[in-house]
Specification:
It catalyses: a 2-demethylmenaquinol + S-adenosyl-L-methionine = a menaquinol + S-adenosyl-L-homocysteine + H(+). The chain has about 240 residues and is α/β, with parallel strands linked by helices. It is built from nine helices and seven strands; from the N terminus they run αααβαβαββαβαααββ. The N terminus is likely disordered.
Length: about 240
């Protein structure tokens, strides 16, 4: 069985997700105690997809988050580094004309400058070896006046919640994973990557560094997850000044 480590080498991460792709959505639902669907709904509302818009959903996996974005008539490009995830997504959603799947590296996106009305990523940025380079790419492909939405595991600000959450990651989740996942070792990386990920204020600073304005975040589930947003200035060039 394959798992990535915190060096997050792209080939390791892709191979790990290839191996868990078939049952990935089911396992996530179990591990999140049903909250994964609520977090996806919150991210979809934050993106606010509109008919005729072109939206990029990065680290889209099997397309579960992408499908919701198409329901108002937006065209969604579901991009993921894992060939296995993309294959499952294409098979599951072959009948959706508003959804296309593209294998892509978040740090070197195969898209033109200023191409998308919105760029979003859910629970994938912490898997990127150079997340700030990825944010620069998000900015590049976002249209001036367009928006970015990032939904990611974060740091609960209240100490007792934070302690209980990390106890769950370290002790409870591994036991659940052994029952729910085809690759329990891969999910050891999940807990480690969450614990190592920077807090809400740091990610907000990275978004501003990338060039986005109106940067803000909202905690979900007491800060276990944070929903970050930003807007590319309407008069922006491709790169921030």
């Amino acid at each position: 069985m394959s798992r990535a480590d915190l060096n997050k080498q792209p080939e390791q991460v892709a191979a790990m997700f290839d191996q868990v792709s078939t049952h990935y959505d089911r396992t996530n639902a179990v591990l999140s105690v049903g909250n994964a669907a609520l977090w996806r709904m919150a991210a979809t509302r934050a993106v606010n997809p509109r008919r005729g818009e072109r939206i990029l959903d990065i680290a889209a996996g099997t397309g579960t988050s992408s499908v919701a974005l198409t329901k108002t008539g937006a065209h969604v490009v579901a991009a993921d580094f894992s060939e296995g995830m993309i294959a499952v997504g294409r098979s599951r959603h072959a009948g959706n004309p508003q959804l296309e799947f593209v294998q892509a590296d978040a740090t070197a996106l195969p898209f033109a400058d200023n191409e998308f009305d919105a760029v979003t990523i859910s629970f994938g940025l912490r898997n990127v070896v150079e997340p700030r380079k990825a944010l620069a790419e998000f900015y590049r492909v976002t249209k001036p006046g367009g928006r970015v939405v990032i939904c990611e595991f974060s740091t609960p600000p209240f100490a007792p919640i934070r302690m209980g959450y990390f106890a769950y990651l370290n002790h409870v989740m591994p036991m659940i994973v052994k029952l729910a996942s085809s690759n329990a070792e891969a999910y050891d990386y999940l807990g480690e990557s969450i614990a190592a990920w920077p807090n809400q204020q740091t990610l907000s600073a990275w978004l501003r560094e990338a060039g986005y304005d109106a940067v803000a975040y909202r905690n979900l589930s007491l800060g276990i997850v944070a929903l970050h947003r930003g807007v590319k200035p309407a008069d922006a060039s491709t790169a921030p000044s």
